[in-house]
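To start, one record:
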Amino acid sequence: MSKMKILHAIGGGEFGGAEQHILELLEILSRHAVDPVVVCFYNSTFAEELRKRNIRVIVLDTYGRFDFRLVKGLTRVFQEEKPELIHSHGVKANFFCRLAARSLPRVPIVTTIHSVLRYDYPNPLAYFLASRMELWTRKWNDHYIAISNSIKQSLESDGVKSQDITLIHHGIPIEEFKTEDAPEEIRRSLGLPADAFVIGTVSRLVAVKGLTDLMQAFILLAEEHPRVHWLVIGDGPEKGPLENMAKEAGISDRVHFAGFRQDVPRCLHAMDLFISPSYSEGLGLSLLEAMAAKKPVISTMVGGIADFLVDYLNGLVIPTKNPEEIKQNIVILMEDEDLRMKLAEAGYRTVKEEYTLTHMAMKTKELYRQLIRANTK
């Protein structure tokens, strides 16, 4: 069977859930009838990770942040590569790919919607511009992949026809979340006491992730429980304010900012429980990863998390913007080891049964085939 030539496009300036998704998706699809190439606009960590995996990458980094010459650059790439389908991710890539593809022979464009736009751009002007860029060019897009039911519903409320949307949940490389390393050794490498009760987060440090609420809860918790520590994996503009909050409360030695890590599966095994106090999520990939590592989870029920989290079945549910509730739920799990084990096992089963990479990749491949077949009729 001949391979489908698929071109993915993404900004690639940061390394978040969308970038990780593309890496994992293409590693599988490149072994299953897909010849992938990725175009990104920054020669950063993401591009390097693609190269490490022998996935061909084209970097268009000679243009400004919002430079209309990118249309010509992309048009040239499309003409040279002759993809059978273009798959874009993110507002900037969506916008420029749709404009560039207009001058080419008909090639279907599919866009994965990874998150709800209004939560990605807290600045009103930035949100207005991003939303206009997305909405103005949707008429040149053929199909959408929604990573959660909430995103699918959001697209439908914006006027996208249901038949033009396919729901495909992100998958987890579940086998990577096992480790032979002792938790004590992992904690030592991260500067955590061996006997601490460790709560953990893996997140971009941005306002929408609700980490200020968690810091307020942790300050209250730390006063009553001297063994509790917080491991923060990730980086972003909220790091400074969070560090200042910890310093002012006198608990800097109990909040551990580990920064961006490429060994997240290993780091998860340093945690006793995982928390996501986010105000918005496309799917909640970090939560699924914690569940794959058999960690009990506490989370707000936002976005795609509602697709898989059930209170007191495979996790605990908390309201948004409520530090007291966060604290109380942490205490519940701290004091009930049996409940922690029950939630951890149920969470692992959820991922294993419904959220594997293979399931995600095969559904995506079949969608590619359908769109390419329809385009050649």
Observations:
- The first strand starts at residue 4 and ends at 10.
- The chain has a mean pLDDT of 93.
- The CA atoms of residues 71 and 372 lie 23 Å apart.
